Amino acid sequence: MNSKLYFCPTCNREEISEIKTITEQYEIKGEKFNVKANIRFCSKCDEELYDFELEQKTIVGAYNAYRETHGLLFPDQIKNLRETYGLSATSFSKLLGFGEKTITRYENGALQDNAQNNLMVLMEDLYSFKMLWERNKSVLTTKEINKVNQIIVKFCTSKLVLLYSAETESEYRIKKEYKTYDMR
Fold first, then answer.
1. Which of 172, 164, 166 shows the shortest CA–CA distance to 180?
2. Is the model's pLDDT at 153 over the cut of 90?
3. What are the distances in angstroms from CA 167 to CA 110, 152, 156, 162, 163?
4. Threshold 0.70, pTM exceeds
5. 80/7 Cα distance (integer angstroms)
6. Domain check: are 52 and 108 in the same one?
7. Is residue 58 included in any domain, yes or no?
8. Does residue 163 belong to any structural domain of this protein?
């Protein structure tokens, strides 16, 4: 529902308010972004009223525009990546060499730098993850190490099965084209 009673400082009392969509400009890291913003206005005097929830949504929209422009991972992508390896936010931060709360901040909407983003993007590749894992797993607890080892083994096994199946299928197709079936 768009209309809601809100205190209007101009009218000096609660008035019915309505939400209008306007374009606002936000500056993020020195760059300007135009963002569609839902703004609450007094229905009587048309004064703009501060609405914390609407403001937060607009800021998220501006940050997402920045992420989109710069090819940065979105908070849900970071969380999904971390969860893929069964790591807590703190453990993933430590494994990447970040501060303990860094991943939590990114998952909650803070903007990462390009260098940190690039490292997280590399972690989408299992072999890159394994390389970093082998270098830094000592910063984690034994329980976390065992849990991630199990996940890595599972991923490696499933990738080998897929790789084998794909090679077998392509070999079959090639042999079929040349009518040289190998019926083992």
1. 172
2. no
3. 43, 22, 16, 9, 6
4. yes
5. 41
6. no
7. yes
8. no
pLDDT tens string 100-140 = 999 999 999 999 999 999 999 999 988 889 899 889 999 98
> The domain containing residue 88 runs over which residues?
75-147
| DSSP strand pairing (31-42 vs 4-8) | unpaired
- Of 38-42, 59-63, 89-93, 149-153, the poorest mean pLDDT is in 149-153
Q: What value does the mean pLDDT take over residues 158-178?
A: 44
Distance CA 98, CA 110 (A): 14
The amino acid present at 15, given as its one-letter code, is E
The CATH code of the domain that includes 41 is 3.10.20
Beta-strand pair 48-49/13-28: unpaired
Q: 81 and 62 in one domain?
A: no
Average pLDDT in the chain: 85
